[in-house]
Amino acid sequence: MEFKQLRYFVKIAELGNMTRASEALLIAQPALSQQIANLESELGTRLFDRGVYGARLTSPGEVLYGYAKSLLRQHEDVRQAVTQEVAHPTGRAAIGIPGSTGKMLAEPLIRELLASGGILLELIERPSAELVDLVAAGKLDIAIAVDAQPRRGVKIAPLFTEALYAVLPQASAQGRQTLKLRELADSPLILPSVPSTIRQRVEAALLDKHLKYRLVSEVSATDMLIRLVAADLGWTVLPWSALSDEVARQTRIAALPIAGYRLDREISLCVSDNLPLSRAADIVASTSLSILRRLLQSGKWMGAKLLPGSPLADPS
């Protein structure tokens, strides 16, 4: 018994005439008659009494009609539910994002998910090393991590690198476009607390150039770092993702590229290598990549450089 046969059967029962049913169904009458004959053969009973007045349901036919209407209604409900889920997906997903990256990604990600469906997104802000561990433990579906290290149970897809900028009071910038690493070393530094990939990059660069430096404070919160620099208490180093809002608001800070020495860090997409993503999580991952791609292509993520083989490469 097929849904097609039930649909044909119901149409004949409702129109009471084989010819009119074949016209309504856009099927030749002999083919329609054969389908009903096959259905009657399978059920072992006659479903219609055929005569000069058309086709009327027999008692077994009336029983089948009630069930057929219910089954066809359920079939349509299933089709509509699946179509609705495709057009407006639902579900729950958890994504981990470091604080600086979240400043660029979180708002457009939530906005797009709200516009497209009913996915409930949990955003977790943690240091990247913790985020990778949470993905491995199955507590996060996705992580956008900085300088992610290989970890059993996690698949890491490098996306792009982002340059680190010297952050200093506007008065100290004096209209300059770049800054030398030595000038950074000669200034009082307020650096992110350990562990921090930014801290590691800065100290490695200074050590590489045999430059001594003066650390006046360690701060774990990016917003606090920026406030302290704005108060002219020291200089720091941060990626553009952490600075874009403050620079756009023309606060008392300046962000300058470091000339002659590229300080950068790598941004990657991390997912489990043994647990498949749910549909909701897959949508969150693809939406995140789409937003990141647009940010890089538009130039809004200054200092970002696409990596070879990156999933952010234009799919066209």
From TrEMBL:
<comment type="similarity">
    <text>Belongs to the LysR transcriptional regulatory family.</text>
</comment>
<keyword id="KW-0238">DNA-binding</keyword>
<protein>
    <submittedName>
        <fullName>LysR family transcriptional regulator</fullName>
    </submittedName>
</protein>
<keyword id="KW-0010">Activator</keyword>
<keyword id="KW-0805">Transcription regulation</keyword>
<dbReference type="GO" id="GO:2000142">
    <property type="term" value="P:regulation of DNA-templated transcription initiation"/>
</dbReference>
<dbReference type="InterPro" id="IPR005119">
    <property type="entry name" value="LysR_subst-bd"/>
</dbReference>
<keyword id="KW-0804">Transcription</keyword>
<dbReference type="Pfam" id="PF03466">
    <property type="entry name" value="LysR_substrate"/>
</dbReference>
<dbReference type="InterPro" id="IPR036388">
    <property type="entry name" value="WH-like_DNA-bd_sf"/>
</dbReference>
<dbReference type="GO" id="GO:0003677">
    <property type="term" value="F:DNA binding"/>
</dbReference>
<feature type="domain" description="HTH lysR-type">
    <location>
        <begin position="1"/>
        <end position="58"/>
    </location>
</feature>
<dbReference type="Pfam" id="PF00126">
    <property type="entry name" value="HTH_1"/>
</dbReference>
<dbReference type="InterPro" id="IPR036390">
    <property type="entry name" value="WH_DNA-bd_sf"/>
</dbReference>
<dbReference type="InterPro" id="IPR000847">
    <property type="entry name" value="LysR_HTH_N"/>
</dbReference>
<dbReference type="GO" id="GO:0003700">
    <property type="term" value="F:DNA-binding transcription factor activity"/>
</dbReference>
